[in-house]
Amino acid sequence: MTMIALAGVALGRVYAGPLLTRLVLGAALGSVLVSVAARRLPSWLVAPLSVLALAGWTGLSLRLAAAHADLPGSLAEVTADAARNAIPRLLTAMIPMEPAPDTVLVPLVAAWLAGLAGAEVALRAGRVLLGYLPPVLLYAGALYVVGPNAEPAVWPTVAFAAVAAAGLAVPARQDPAGTDPAAGLAPAVRAAVRARLVAVTAAGVAAVIGFAALLAPVVAGRVDERPVDPRRYVEPPQVESLDENPLIRISGWALSPDQKLLEVSTEEGASGPDQGGLRIRLAVLSDYDGVTWRVGATYRNAGRILPAAEPAPGGTVDTVRQQITVADLSGRLLPAVATPREVTGARVAYDPATGTLIRPEGLSPGLRYTVTSARERPDANLLATANVPAGDAVARVLRVADGAPEQLRRLAAQLADSNGAPYARAAAIEEFLAEHYRVTADAPSGHAYPNLAFFLFGPRNGGGQRGTSEQFAAAFAVLGRLAGLPTRVVVGFEPKGDGPVRAVDAFAWPEVLFEGIGWVPFDPMPRPDSEPRPVEEDFRPTPEDPPPSEVPEPTLEPTATPPAAAPEPASGRHGVSTPVLVGGGTGGLVLLVGLVLLTLGTLRRSQTRARLDRGDPGQRIAGAWREVTDALRLAGRPVGGDLAASEVAERARHAIVEARAAMAADRTRAPEGAGTPDVPARDGGSNGRGPTDAGEPAGGGAGPRDADVAELARLLNQVAFALGTATLEQAERAAGVAEDYVAVLRAARPWWRRLLWSVHPGPLRWRR
Q1: Which residues of 12-33 are buried (b: 16+ CB within 10 A; e: fewer)?
Q2: What is the predicted pLDDT for the residue at 470?
Q3: Which residues contact 346 (CB under 8 A, 6 or more apart)?
Q4: Which of 476, 497, 95, 10 is nearest to 285 (CA)?
Q5: What are phi and psi of 738, to 5 degrees?
Q6: 3-state class of 14 per DSSP?
Q7: What whole-number distance in Å separates Cα of residue 97 and Cα of residue 370?
Q8: Are 247 and 468 in contact, with CB atoms under 8 Å apart?
Q9: How many C-beta atoms lie closer than 10 Å to residue 677's C-beta?
Q10: pLDDT in tens, 106-144
């Protein structure tokens, strides 16, 4: 029972509130109590009795969940809906999930069945370990459903393991006779039985230990891995084609202005100055492909309480509570004032990125719901100096689809040229559209590139330069993106107050995203009773083809032979000859390369001197060690950061032996008198040895003995584990070993690699 309750605790991490955990605890307690109470009855009666108890507990739990989520409908309707949609909604619900009938049904039934199966196996069959299997599977399923959507369940898992161990440690039920089962056997047989029991027990323990040894590395290797989210395999609720692009509905609504779409009532107690004229959002369209604007949202099933976002600093937030009744509005999109925080009376799915809602079952006449929204109003004083974001996070609302007409690009560039600040650019586009175009209800629908080009630049007497809010909002959004502004289009309603919301109240408006402020709406619609100014007065697009020449065409038979053009004298030519250009360019390139190499060589020498001659003895010993490791890396023998100093010294010894052998082979092959690489040595060396020290192989030249790098490793360990004990003599000794070692490795390299050794930029940038 406790193990099943802990599974409910693990699953409850992705639920809002403790209701789910309490319901699972009740299911665990009820299932085990039924099995305990019926343990003396025939086994075939236990399952029917437990199922009846499960039905009663499920009905009570669904009623509690429905009341908690404030869902309408009878218990039968709620139960039927939960049975049909429990699994999909469980895997598509927004985190944190609200305990609703469809999100608690599956965990509830699974917990009850796990308790029934585990109790029956443990009590009737006496197989405690096998009885653990249902609770373990339930706990694993809870962890899988949670996935990466919550913090690791550390303490529930530890408690689960502790309860399981305690259950195994409880002594088993004794035999009623209370005697040893082998007591009546002959001594030889009894000894054989006991030996067999010991062997079987030892084999079992060995098997368990072996299994743990094999499984432990696999489990340990997956501790830091991100769990798989099962929601990736389930498609969340989708909008229909009618809702994917509701912008095309503007023209239809404009032709039927008296059609009643909604009934709105702003409840008493809503804060804010004037509740009339509130904009009710229907959809937010962020994606544009040059043909249509689309919603492109990801809706997740949500409960009554929606996720809250931090308001922008400096702005004001008004709480608006409205009761909305659907009339003739169709589709799945659910209207609400931005940004909704609580919805009652309807089951909804929510997209946090846009703050919009849908009803997965679709809208129906008479549907009534109440929505509480947090309406944000930015500080207008911050807009003039606000910037706009950039980068991958806003690439979606900055994307300009291929095929944008050149006239649109030129108009956007013209409006942006004289307005550097983002808000000034947006205001210039808003003002240009409001002053040059006319609103007409009978304008044809369409917002593809050709439609917008005709709306902006088409002749007035041919139907151009007029449209509905569809064209105004779409044109603003496209021009804004061409001017570098992140934009989107919003479709909604602006009623005059409480009462009916009709088709004439539907319109579209653009929004621009500003850093630290959020999305700000703009109104590019013309002012009432204003006469639009001709576009040609402020924007005259460059003609696509050059005008025909006004010079008369020459006759087919010229009357006189035209005089030959006199050749241009050489003295009149301007510019520099090609050889001079080539020579100057080559010389400049050589000079640039020389300066780069000189700079690199100077930096490398300065780095070496800083390592070996500056700082306290400990720092100089560490610098000498870095010189050795850099030399190994330059010689093509890099050492990993996971190796101990003694291991690095051993690899360095092998490298120097091979380098000396290579140098000896080169001297053997070289003809008499041919030059061989010389190894610079410190005269007498700070290590106190000359080029003829014992231990040098023939022809090896001057260089460090094999033990010197090992001594440097010991000095490094001394610096690391005994701070402040290194002396100046030890630092000078380390510097001498490092210089000799680097010299030998460098001398063994080919001539061209020796040239590049001192100017290689690697040691200047390699991480330590």
Answers
A1: bbbbbeebbbbbbbbbbbbbbe
A2: 95
A3: 334, 359, 367, 369
A4: 476
A5: -65, -45
A6: helix
A7: 20
A8: no
A9: 17
A10: 999 999 999 889 888 887 777 777 888 899 999 999 988
| Contact assessment for residue 307 and residue 339, using Cβ atoms and an 8 Å cutoff | no
Q: Which helix (H) or strand (E) holds 163?
A: helix 154-169
Q: Is 552 left (phi over 0), alpha (psi -120 to 50) or beta?
A: beta
Could you give the CA distance from residue 515 to residue 406 in angstroms, rounded to a whole number? Answer: 30
Distances (CA, A) of 286 to 297, 394, 399, 489, 571: 9, 10, 10, 7, 63
Question: Bridge-partner residues for 316, per DSSP?
Answer: 377
pLDDT for the residue 359: 92
Task: Give the pair of three-digit tokens for residue 449.
Answer: 């590139």
What count of other Cβ atoms lies within 10 Å of the Cβ of residue 125?
Answer: 11
Element at 34 (helix H, strand E): helix 19-37
User: For helices 101-124 and 2-11, what crossing angle results, to 10°?
Assistant: 160
Could you give the CA distance from residue 76 to residue 79 in angstroms, rounded to a whole number?
5
Q: Residue 440 in 3-state DSSP?
A: coil
Residue 293's alpha-carbon distances to 202, 241, 300, 349, 434, in angstroms, are 71, 12, 22, 21, 22
Distance CA 358, CA 421 (A): 37
Residues in the chain: 768
pLDDT of residue 484: 94
The SS3 assignment for 155 reads: helix
Q: Report the first-to-last Cα separation within the chain, whole angstroms.
A: 55
Q: What is the pLDDT of residue 341?
A: 92
Q: What angle do CA 581, 584, 586 make, to 5 degrees?
A: 105
Residue in 468, 727, 760, 489 with CA at minimum distance from that of residue 605? 760
State CA 599 to chain mean position distance.
42
355: its two tokens: 């703050």
Tell me the one-letter amino acid at 300: R
Count of CB atoms within 10 A of residue 402's CB?
Answer: 7
Show Cβ contacts of residue 122 under 8 Å, excluding neighbours closer than 6 positions: 128, 130, 131
Burial of 661 (0-12, 13-18, 19+ CB in 10 A): middle
Report CA 83 to chain centroid distance, whole Å.
Answer: 34
Q: What pLDDT score does 221 carry? A: 60
Q: What angle do CA 317, 321, 325 make, to 5 degrees?
A: 140
How is residue 351 written in tokens? 């997209």
Residue partners of 165: CB distance under 8 A and separation at least 6? none
CA dihedral of residues 540, 545, 550, 551 (deg, nearest 10): 140
Which amino acid, 218? V
- DSSP code per residue over 293-329: EE-----EEE-SBPPP-PPPTT-EEEEEEEEEEESS-
Which parts of the chain sit beneath pLDDT 70? 170-185, 215-216, 218-225, 268-277, 540-585, 587-589, 642, 666-707, 767-768
User: Is residue 321 a contact partner of residue 266, using CB atoms and an 8 Å limit?
Assistant: yes
E strand or H helix at 541:
none
- Residue 300 dihedral angles phi and psi, to the nearest 5°: -120, 140
Nearest to 272 by CA among 380, 376, 396: 376
Measure the CA–CA gap between 90 and 87, rounded to whole angstroms: 5
The token pair at 325 is: 């009744």
427 Cβ neighbours under 8 A, 6+ residues apart: 419, 522
Query: Phi and psi dihedrals of 71, rounded to 5?
Result: -90, 140
Q: What is the DSSP letter of 510?
A: E
**Strands 348-351 and 356-358: what pairing?**
antiparallel
Asked whether the beta carbons of 75 and 63 are under 8 A apart, the reply is yes
The DSSP element (H or E) to which 181 belongs, if any, is none
DSSP of 448-475: SHHHHHHHHHS-GGGT-SEE-HHHHHHH
What pTM did the predictor assign? 0.59
157-166: pLDDT as tens digits: 889 888 888 8
- pLDDT at residue 440, as a whole number: 92
Distance CA 210, CA 192 (A): 27
